[in-house]
Amino acid sequence: MKDSSSLLAELFAKFSGSDEVLDARELKQILNKVFKGTEFSTEECRTFVSLWDKSRNAVLDYAEFRELCDTLSEWQNMFFQYSDGPTGCVLVKQLRKCFKSIGKVNSIIS
């Protein structure tokens, strides 16, 4: 079984093509494969590109893509940590703790 790093590298190579960068449409295809059960919209992916595109060329290179995936994975893990289980919902009383945890993760990443 492949580890997540090699899977991401393989998917990046497959969808980025010869230019070795991802636009929002290509990013959407990968994210919807990597984060099964989550349906990312093209608009969400445009936002991700604008936020993680450090070189400001409207696309993500592999390093930017990896950073995005790592961040999304952290957010997803925090959500699951505070969700009530089978419904996948975060109770209001747990929401503040969840946001604080995500804030700590974001401050480490920034």
TrEMBL record:
It comes from Ridgeia piscesae (Tubeworm). InterPro entries: EF-hand-dom_pair. It comes from the Eukaryota. Keywords: Calcium, Cytoplasm, Membrane, Metal-binding, Repeat. GO terms for cellular component: cytoplasm; endomembrane system. SUPFAM superfamilies: EF-hand. It is found in: Cytoplasm; Endomembrane system. GO terms for molecular function: metal ion binding. This is EF-hand domain-containing protein.
